[in-house]
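Researcher: Next entry in the queue.
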Amino acid sequence: MGYGSISPSNAQSLAADAQSLGNLKMEAGKNTPAAIKETAKQFESLFMRELMKSMREATMKSGMLDSAGADLGTDLLDQQFAVQMSGQPGGLSDMIALQLTRQMAGTTKDSTAGTTGHSGAPVGVTKSAKSAAPLAPMPAIGKAVRTPTENQSTFVKQHSNVASEVEKTTGIPASFMLGQAGHETGWGKFEIKHKGGASSHNLFGIKAGAGWTGKVAEVTTTEFIDGVATKKLAKFRAYDSYADAFKDYARMITESPRYAKAKALTQTGGSAQSFASGLQKAGYATDPDYAAKLSRAINTTLQIRRAQA
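Model: Structure for this entry, 309 residues:
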């Protein structure tokens, strides 16, 4: 009986050794619906097999008919039962397949935006604001380590020097700023632009409030109002350079009482999660999942900068 193959001819087999599991993971890495579905079924089968094994071990044996041959036959029978009971609609394998699909989707969908200017008017999130709600907790099947994309690495490298200079004068960690800039713009893919297509250099989605006297760019954005995504035309600050954008963002975080707590966290070694939560609590964005998305972007930036150092 061949183990670990995803081919239809082996659909009734069970990946039961380290090499077979390795092959199974490699096939799942192809990220095709068929491979993910079969991988999920195999994981469920292994779980069922271990469950039946534990139940048999908990049952007292008579000793009269016990033998190595009988044990082997029982194990093979359990394996067949495990395969036959797995893959049923609505079962554990469906949950595992859904989780695998989400884990392998990458971070490219986290391209939301949402900030507030000095006026205090909240700016919502953009394209991915309507993403599905998080799945309910389920048994862990292995944590996927997301590898930064080439686009993310290029974005971080492009702006690292400026962010580092601003960090020296304000104390806001460069990686925090880079992560937020990447998150707000989809790592440079969805920058706020003027009507003619020229960049506004606004990497942080900061709105042009009543006190802003500089240039502006008008774009349609998506905001969450009472939990409902709503399209609105809004004015955003426009700068002459990306350096000016970083400086203006740092000035806003440093000088506005609204973000005093979030800024204080950067002075006491606060984590990416605590900083992101502080910004969300201060009303930086209307997206209810903003803190989680921002912390992921910051952690991605930290990973990239370590690799580029």
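Model: Residues 64 and 70 are 11 Å apart (CA to CA).
Researcher: Noted, moving on.
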